Amino acid sequence: MRNQDRPSSITLVMISLRDMGRFLPKAGLQAAILSLPLAAALSWLALLATQIAGDESKPFGTYILVIVAAILVAIPAQSALLRRALRGRSGPLLGLELGGDEVRLAIVALLIGILGFTVLGAAGLGLVAILAALDLAARSRAGAPAIDSESPETALPVLGEYFGNGDWGVAVAVIALFTVFAIWFCARLSLAYAATIARQKVQALSSFSLTRGRWIATALVMALALLPGLGLRYLALELARGEGAASLGILFALEWLAAAVTLLLTCAAGMSLYRQLGGDDQEPVPS
What we know:
Structural class: mainly alpha
Number of strands: 0
Low-confidence stretches: 282-287
Shape: globular
Order of helices and strands: HHHHHHHHH
Strand content: under 5%
């Protein structure tokens, strides 16, 4: 589909919101059941986050392993919901399968993880280097004591402590530029999962061509799809600091709702954007 034949950004957002609203009642029960394992993993993550904050041993290894487990249990649920959205079928056992789609989604998740870590990691290091250089220059102008790793007073200086107005202006501009780049990068890759299920082959980078010229609208739709789940997760993390069976029960319920809503909305948003941006111009068979 040529760029001039695509819907406008406003139309893209409005139709995506409509499709998200229509998909909720169709696949709500399916998503609620499929998200149970993911909710358990997310609840564990919330508890681990609280433990890491207050534990000197910092069990980051366990935290990473649980993140990997959460991704792995999310893939079959996401695959089932995307099949329903894009192909119009769910199949037996709520659409759960362990076949080619799931393997391809796992490969795409790995490729995106490597690409994101490399690109955003390099950009993040550049951001840190610029901010550190600004801070060193500001400290030098102010005649501040040199940073000494062996001195408790100067080993960990406060970033921006000696910044002037010009320094703050540059720092804010650089941080804003990094934020825009990160949003652009994530938006350009956001249709990789939908494309992979629709085309039944690994499509980690095809999302770049689909979102060309429409990355702002794509980012907005995906942000709206993620926002309810993120809000519920924030509440869950606050509850993770509490004690008692009641707090744990509410924590799990919130994580369950967050997982189900996030899976539903992101899959519906991916389906809608993929079709509107000319992914395959193919309507699903009614379920």
